[in-house]
Design brief:
seven-stranded mixed sheet; alpha/beta; about 40% helix; 13 strands; about 325 residues; homodimer
């Protein structure tokens, strides 16, 4: 039996879902993987930096209140840090500094955050290698459905050439609202009611969310070195509502589609509203469904992965699966 | 650099595609994984048991002609045996004996064959464990698209509950022919022209192929112990052609669908023609496309994997990916 001390950095919707998921899998972790765990730290803007080496009860977090991330890591001494704080897409901070600190303190750094992934993927991966730890980030794109683990474990040397998909559920929800006769702003209000829109919904509808995710995929899976400003970006605000409705009636609805395409030795990325033809692999997208379609040498017609109506547990599951992978429990 | 000696057991369409794939990936195997390989044996009904420790040129196979599998393994001394001989769904033989022999001779046993998987999964897995080797079989279901590696590496403790999919492309091709106005027999002829039908096409259209694949998935991913006779099975021959055409016109076409569903502590499997509703995750299936849709605790609306128009290289890729996994080259 191996026992792991875990720290939660961020304790919002996803953090709470992860706590629930870990608790629901406690017996299976023990029986299938010979693994025990204990939570030794939790931190959020509301809670501050809480550490207790003997274990924190996440239903009523209490313990020593530390003064910063390093103090917290010194006290909590985690084997694994789960990072899921709010995104700053422009710099990846402060998550980037926190993940660096986690690795330097000897913990695996598992992050749901696409900011540090886009701004620090190579640095954090090198640092993790140097520390003999892992930096993993399955939940940063497609909310916990397999993207990075799929490529790493299931598609070695598959000859990936291109990818496209729907990565921002808010955009789909807004477009569907417009298809029903509502305005863009009413669609945004609906996405906010569903709890899926980012704090700044413009971030989703203007294509920034997709652009950041495309950079993550392009840099990790396609060896590119893109930043969001490199992505040709067109959002859905400029679409004419009558055109959106006509496209739906026509069976070729608009969706906000991100594409990674070959360009010499590397790839380019762009995001724009496109009409989806009947029978297209992306044609399954409605509601909050996310989809990624890969083109690869060994899949002549492509390989598609679809996650239908993910919820916070799905995102938490990406972190959970990264944990199982990081500790080497997988066969 | 680690050098691996490989043997091919079966050298038809898939074997030739695997030889081409390995050759095309030789540089990347060296540069990315520090791996070299050499073919030291090839066997088929036509060639006999050919072994040459110094290397066999697969474009003109020659070497010592051995008298049986054990003699062949003794001479070729492979680290890995790729098994892809014709299927006997009723017993899994002789592939089952060959895979046992490969493991006992200290080789990883990598098989595209669903016969031994259904009839010998537990025995071969135990034997592989005892020998410190791997028995892997990604290509046995869905032609090399990730099924077993996906579950093993990407979905630990995901709480898989059920699965359904289209696993037999011949059935789809035949149904589409009927939708166009042809007869079932004309549809079968078309599938044979495409080279996708089994030697006995009844095996596909009567649901046996799907039934065998469902047993493989149920036994490996859902802990069941099903044999094909346990699967409730209905093929597509009994469908009325007018109904098939009307269903297509109606936008709810018939497809031959395999289902694994919970039943107390284990699962049951059945295969039958079903009408696919618009928007259903299986609705993308046309031509030779294969699809698997999983229900799991952590994917509220399910997770779908679609392989569009796979070809023999796709099947070969499943064996190739198993090879990379078996030798521990994956991160």
């Amino acid at each position: 039996m191996t026992a792991y001390d875990l720290c939660f950095l961020g304790f919002g919707t996803v953090g709470k879902a992860l706590a629930g998921l870990l608790a629901s899998r406690r017996t299976e972790l023990r029986e299938r993987y010979d693994v025990e765990y204990r939570i030794t730290g939790v931190a959020s803007r509301r809670l501050g930096w809480i550490a207790r080496a003997s274990g924190v009860d996440l239903s009523a977090p209490a313990g020593r209140l530390c003064h910063d991330v390093n103090d917290w890591l010194d006290r909590a001494r985690p084997h694994v840090v789960f990072e899921m704080i709010p995104l700053d897409p422009h710099t990846g901070q402060p998550a980037l500094d926190y993940l660096r600190a986690a690795l330097e303190h000897g913990a695996h750094a598992i992050s749901a955050n696409k900011g540090p992934l886009v701004h620090g993927y190579r640095e954090l991966s090198r640092l993790a290698d140097a520390c003999g730890k892992r930096y993993l980030f399955e939940s940063a794109v497609m909310d916990g459905a397999p993207v990075f683990s799929l490529a790493r474990h299931c598609l070695p040397l598959a000859g990936l050439r291109a990818a496209r998909g729907v990565f921002t559920s808010t955009a789909t929800v807004v477009l569907e609202a417009v298809e029903e006769g509502l305005s863009i702003d009413e669609g945004i209000a609906r996405a906010q009611q569903l709890g899926i829109a980012e704090a700044d919904p413009g971030y989703d509808v203007d294509g920034w969310d997709t652009a950041v995710k495309l950079c993550a995929v392009a840099n990790v899976l396609f060896g590119a070195a893109l930043v969001p400003a490199d992505v040709r970006r067109e959002g859905i605000r400029s679409l004419d509502a009558a055109h959106v409705r006509a496209a739906r009636r026509d069976g070729r609805p608009y969706r906000l589609i991100g594409r990674i395409a070959p360009d010499g030795d590397t790839v380019t990325a762009r995001v724009a509203p496109e009409r989806v033809e009947p029978g297209d692999p992306l044609g399954v997208v409605h509601g909050t469904t996310l989809v990624m379609h890969y083109q690869a040498d060994v899949f002549p017609g492509g390989l598609t992965v679809v996650s239908h109506d993910p919820d916070p547990t799905t995102t938490a599951y990406g972190l959970f699966a990264d944990f199982v992978s990081a500790i080497g429990a997988l066969a």
